[in-house]
Design goal:
Blueprint (H helix, E strand, L loop, with lengths): L16 H16 L4 H8 L3 H25 L5 H10 L3 H30 L8 H20 L2 H30 L15 H15 L2 H6 L7 H30 L2 H7 L3 H46 L14 H19 L2 H27 L7 H25 L1 H23 L18
Helix pairs in contact: 1-7, 1-8, 1-10, 1-12, 2-3, 2-8, 2-11, 3-8, 3-10, 3-14, 3-15, 4-5, 4-14, 5-6, 5-12, 5-13, 5-14, 5-16, 6-12, 6-13, 7-10, 7-12, 8-14, 8-15, 10-12, 11-12, 12-13, 14-15, 14-16, 15-16
Length: about 450
């Protein structure tokens, strides 16, 4: 099977280093701060800032595989490329790539619902499921229009909105800590570890908050000087986000107790702003949240549509245009927003986040195993880093599954069924392609160049 590249020469170099960082941080900050802070605090308690630190460490280890691969073979839709080179054009590569794409679509619906929740909070209508779903669908539709207008529109808008939201979030956090101090709220009493398993499980959500760096990997072929800048963009994005996350965690924790953070859950920053900064601070935080979540959805739609386009051109997934005009990329934009919109309507934020975390961790483990098993010598990667990243993912996934088994076992059933369905569907699809039969058993063919 011939490998195609869907990146036209006109698209290469269309994303600057700053634009790539803006897209990466756009996805991370949109999900990590506004959608997940409450859920992380619920599991980790007063130690929830440490969960972000642990998430950053695990993510940095994980990024090693992606950076080494992207430096060797920068590609738009890069995760599909990594898996295909590691496992050959068979069931494992196609299924894991599709899991990654699904986790990214799940992230879109997660952040879109967070946008809607914050938009409705001033009207005390954030509990209205119909309005939340309608606004989430509206944002996903807007993200489609921006992406349909071209790469430079996405890069420019992401850069502007990222600057606004990072500056605004830092201002909120500093003001909240200045007003409340670190001796109040969640940090008022003695801080000690009461449930190590729950703290570990919270890291699954923290990792999900950092997974936006894969947006950069999936757009690698379109970044200026990709061999040099993809890795730099990833590490700069992670560094910016961990600093922002810690500032916000301390700002929220200084203003609210853990029960108050859990009660506010999906709008914890807005809830923390009111006692610390008054009504003006409350509305300021709402505006920043809307900016952050909007840019997050736009950047995520951009990345996942590129990845699905590459999977289609590599003949790893079937494609039908359903009578639509235009090329594969325009079709994938439509499919991406339709699936994200459907998820935004059907699932609440907690279950959306749980599904995204499970899918991502499973895919990430397959990436590390494949790179370690088949490619480490070719890309000069250190085995101990690859295996440490693999082990860290496994520990977090086991702890997360254990907690969910007690609190929401149905989400584990849904995740297992969907993962099984993805692998089965890919095996059936690829078994009909003679050139893929040799690799459908999970064995690796010679990497395609």
């Amino acid at each position: 099977m011939e490998q195609h590249s869907h990146t036209d020469s006109s698209e290469k170099g269309s994303i600057s280093l700053a634009g790539g960082v803006a897209m990466g941080t756009g996805v991370m900050i949109g999900a990590g701060i506004f959608a997940l802070t409450g859920q992380i605090a619920e599991l980790a308690g007063p130690l929830f800032p440490l969960s972000f630190v642990a998430g950053a460490i695990v993510t940095s280890l994980a990024a090693y595989s992606y950076i080494k691969m992207s430096n060797a073979w920068p590609s738009s839709g890069g995760i599909a490329m990594i898996l295909q080179k590691a496992y050959g054009p068979g069931t494992v590569a196609a299924s894991a790539s599709l899991l990654m794409a699904l986790s990214m679509v799940i992230n879109e619906s997660l952040v879109a619902r967070t946008f809607a929740t914050y938009a409705l909070r001033p009207f005390e209508a954030d509990g209205n499921g119909l309005l939340v779903s309608a606004l989430a669908l509206g944002l996903i539709g807007f993200a489609y229009l921006v992406n349909a207008s071209g790469n430079r529109s996405v890069s420019w808008l992401s850069l502007v909105m990222s600057a606004v939201k990072v500056g605004g979030i830092v201002l909120f956090a500093v003001a909240a800590m200045w007003t409340s101090g670190l001796g109040d709220g969640a940090f008022a009493g003695p801080i000690r570890l009461t449930n190590g398993e729950a703290l570990l499980a919270s890291v699954a959500f923290s990792i999900l908050a950092f997974k936006g760096f894969t947006t950069i990997t999936n757009s690698g072929g379109e970044i200026v000087d990709p061999h040099r800048n993809v890795g730099r963009t990833i590490m700069i994005s992670i560094a910016i986000c961990v600093a922002v996350y810690l500032l916000v965690a301390f700002g929220v924790g200084a203003s609210l107790t853990i029960p108050e953070i859990v009660a506010a859950r999906d709008t914890s920053l807005a809830a923390a702003a009111r006692p610390a900064l008054g009504e003006l601070g409350f509305y300021f935080t709402i505006v920043i949240a809307l900016s952050a979540t909007m840019s997050g959805v736009i950047a995520s739609v951009f990345a996942v549509s590129r990845m699905l386009t590459m999977l289609t051109e590599m003949e790893m997934i079937p494609h039908s245009h359903f009578g639509m005009s235009g090329g594969i990329r325009s079709h994938m934009l439509v499919y991406t927003v339709v699936i994200a919109g459907t998820l935004a309507v059907l699932f609440d934020l907690s279950r959306i986040a749980s599904l995204g975390a499970i899918f991502y961790l499973v895919m990430d483990m397959l990436v590390h195993w494949g790179v370690w098993r088949h490619l480490r010598n070719e890309i000069d990667a250190k085995s101990w880093i690859l295996l440490t990243a693999l082990a860290a993912d496994a520990v977090v996934l086991i702890a997360f599954a254990s907690i969910k088994l007690a609190s929401d076992p149905m989400i584990l059933v849904i995740a297992a069924v969907l993962i099984g369905a993805v692998f089965l569907a890919e095996r059936i699809y690829l078994s009909r392609k003679p050139e893929a039969r040799a690799s459908n058993d999970g064995g690796r063919e010679e990497p395609l160049r």
